[in-house]
Specification:
3 helices; two-stranded antiparallel sheet; binds zinc ion; mainly alpha; about 90 residues
C-alpha cells in the first residue's frame, strides 16, 4: 500500500465499485471498506450504510497504525478517504 499508492489511486481510470470511467479532473474518494478509489456517487451510497461510522473509525485506526502519520496529513493515505484525490497529470 505504501509504495506508489498515491499515483495509482490518484489516477485510477475508473470507479472500482460501479466501473464508471473517471475524467481526469474527477475526484476519487477512497472507500473506507476496501480503500479502493470510488466515484462521488458510490461514496454517497457508502455513507448511507448503517455500519459506515464504525467502518470509518476502524479504517482510521488501522490507517494511523500503518502509516504512523497523523490523520490530517495528506501524505498518509488515511486522509483521502474523506478528502478526495485529484489526478493532476
Ligand atoms: Zn462509482
Amino acid at each position: 500500500m505504501e509504495d506508489n499508492w498515491e499515483k495509482q489511486l490518484a489516477c485510477a481510470p475508473q470507479c472500482l465499485r460501479c466501473n464508471r470511467a473517471f475524467a481526469p479532473q474527477d475526484r476519487r474518494p477512497l472507500s473506507v471498506y476496501d480503500h479502493q478509489p470510488i466515484c462521488g456517487q458510490c461514496k454517497q451510497e457508502e455513507e448511507k450504510r448503517p455500519d459506515y461510522e464504525d467502518a470509518s473509525k476502524a479504517m482510521i485506526a488501522a490507517c494511523l497504525k500503518a502509516t504512523n502519520k497523523p490523520y490530517g496529513d495528506p501524505a498518509g493515505y488515511c486522509f483521502h478517504h474523506f478528502c478526495p484525490f485529484k489526478c493532476n497529470d
